[in-house]
Amino acid sequence: MFGRIRQIWKRVGWAGGVAIRFANLRGVATKSSAAWLNVCLAMTLLGVLTACSLPQVSAEDRLFLPLSLEFLGSYTLDTKTFNDTTVGGLSALTYDRQQEQFYAVSDDRSERAPARFYTLKLEIDTASGQPSLKQVNIQNVTLLKDKEGKTFAPRTIDPEGLALSQTGAVWISSEGVVKDGVPPFIGEFDLKTGQMRRTLPIPEAYLPDSSNPTQQQRGIRDNLGFEALTVSANGTPTDPFRLFAAVESPLIQDLDPPDPQQSAKNRLLHYLIEGDRATIISEHVYPLEPKPMAAVDHGLTELLSIDQAGHFLSLERTFSLSGFQVKLFQTATGTATDSSTIESLRGDLKGTQLARKRELFDFSQLGITIDNLEGMTLGPRLPDRSQSLILVSDDNFNTFTQVTQFLLFRVKGLKS
User: Is 71 within 8 Å of 366 (Cβ atoms)?
Assistant: First the structure.
């Protein structure tokens, strides 16, 4: 590089000298001419240095944040019961930064105990210099109540997604129970009492038109609905905020024939919440990784907003006879097309830009047994001011072969 600069300097310097002598012949002041040309030469050299030293960044790279993860450890929750409820099925996790505590929703369909969420305290040990997850304690359980103030009857709710808003409430998404004719919903619940405050409008495309799987032509499929829920908020309790909800697997009208080379097409809803008013701003297509041939189950289990510019972390999980395989992606929706008017996502969506994503972490590289990871949240800042990321697994209330597993990571490259 420096040899090239010397060559350019010689040429520019020679040309500058000729220009100065020419200016002197014309009667122009030598000092001012020389000074002006020296500035020009300096600017030229600076441009050369800048062009030679700046890395080339592709348009693809500019879509994503420069993130990486560092694994800090795991913890297995041994608590099986709390206040007459069975602890298990933790399918979503969110962090309350003001109270320094976590909330985790159980996906119990009010069959083992009324639908509920737990308040957790996670103790991160920093004494050794390297943070680690020392302990997880359950502090409280809050039963969810419907609009009439009653706990949900069995099989009238399937809570899967959880997000904390700045209004002192939690948002919970229910997949519904399609075969029982129970529709999905996204509801706001009081953080202290569990009382439902309201529900959001759900587009007709998501509502099943039949409880018979062989006759259903539209809507969420059973147990594959609003699994992922996240809030993007940065303000006071009265400020508007955005809420995003995504289905675990494509709607029945969006299903393509199985193809190991083709991504499935999930729908991602974008709401704007302004006081008592909720508006659907847009919908995007999320490209779910192709389902592996040997997979029994495969889907998007969580979505986490990480800034105000449309960047997310998305968690995809596969289950096969060999166990669970999980990958984490960074997803960007800034260039995605609004797909809300598209009746079916089958086939080639010409002219439609899907959300973009890039693999961030493959959990198989940890060298430990990974359980059914479904919940994910940004946690407290670590001592070096980097951001923590905590994930939790849904044990499916299977105490024989599964566990409630917490994983702790450091996120590098995420600005506060």
Answer: yes
Phi, psi (degrees; rounded to nearest 5) at 254:
-105, 0
Question: What are the residues whose beta carbons fall under 8 Å from the beta carbon of 105, sequence distance 6 or more?
Answer: 90, 91, 92, 116, 117, 118, 159, 160, 161, 162, 170, 172
Nearest one of 173, 196, 194, 195 to 184, comparing CA atoms:
173
Which tens digits make up the pLDDT trace of 133-185?
A: 999 999 999 999 999 999 999 999 999 999 999 888 999 999 999 999 999 99
Interatomic CA distance for residues 246 and 266, integer angstroms: 7
H/E segment holding residue 124:
strand 116-125
**pTM of this prediction?**
0.86
Residues 162/103, Cβ–Cβ less than 8 Å: yes
The letter for the amino acid at 46 is L
Task: Report the alpha-carbon distance of residue 98 to residue 162 in Å, rounded.
Answer: 17
**In this structure, how many other beta carbons lie within 10 angstroms of the beta carbon of residue 73?**
16
The CA-atom distances, in angstroms, between 198 and each of 106, 262, 355, 412 are 20, 38, 29, 37
Torsion sign across C-alpha atoms 60, 66, 67, 70? positive
Q: Which two tokens stand for residue 384?
A: 């070096």
Distance CA 12, CA 93 (A): 62
- What pLDDT shows up at residue 22? 35
Determine which helix (DSSP H) or strand (DSSP E) holds 171, and give its type and residue range.
strand 169-174
Residue 132's Cβ-count burial label (10 Å; 0-12, 13-18, 19+) is: middle
| Contact between residue 47 and residue 310 where contact means Cβ atoms under 8 Å apart | no
